[in-house]
């Protein structure tokens, strides 16, 4: 069976339809090479983002629709701080979104193995075992997740943090703490609702 035109080759061509997301966190990863110096565009987006975070509490760099099969319309929040994650999920549910919580990248991978790729991933940066930036890099290399919108949901929101997030493949930033209205506005902006 051929892949649709314009679709990049899967990371594992021997089985392009394998949905085992647990490989994201269970396979040992080769050490990541140091990121290249930020491009002028990344630097500019980080500067704009730092300003937007101060004014609105969030910054979206790029809104890109998922190609291929439609997502399952779930917003997944990956954060080791359970009260914060559950509160964010509650706010999003009240706004009409389906929201699920995973307390680690490993939990997120297991959950995706059962329910499929989310429409949006809100990802904390500082987590034990695997930090959010490493998980994001793996997501960007995964054959079923590479184009899933990922917004970093973190207290690390200095310009240098935004640069690191953009270089890892983030589509935006939400600074903690954030108001319920700003969280919903950020999700609506990313999903184009």
Structural class: alpha/beta
Radius of gyration: 16 Å
Give the rounded overall mean pLDDT. Answer: 77
Percent of residues in beta strands: 5-15%
State the distance separating the first and last CA atoms.
34 Å
- N-to-C SSE string, H for helix and E for strand: HHEEHEHEHEHEH
Q: What's the β-strand tally?
A: 6
Give a quick account of the main beta sheet: strands, pairing sense, barrel closure: 6 strands, mixed
Outline type: globular
Uncertain regions: pLDDT < 50 for 5+ in a row?
1-19, 65-70
Helical amount: 25-40%
- Strand adjacency order, main sheet: 1-6-5-4-2-3
Tell me the layout of helices and strands.
Elements: H1 23-26, H2 40-56, E1 58-60, E2 74-78, H3 82-94, E3 98-102, H4 105-115, E4 120-123, H5 132-141, E5 150-154, H6 159-168, E6 172-175, H7 180-191
Parallel strand pairs: 2-3, 2-4, 4-5, 5-6
Antiparallel strand pairs: 1-6
Helix pairs in contact: 2-6
Question: How would you describe this structure to a colleague?
Answer:
- The chain is α/β, with parallel strands linked by helices.
- It has 7 helices and 6 strands.
- The chain has helices at 23-26, 40-56, 82-94, 105-115, 132-141, 159-168, 180-191; strands at 58-60, 74-78, 98-102, 120-123, 150-154, 172-175.
- The longest helix is centred in the N-terminal third of the chain and has 17 residues, at 40-56.
- The chain starts with 22 loop residues before the first helix and ends with a helix.
- The model is unreliable at 1-19 and 65-70 (pLDDT under 50).
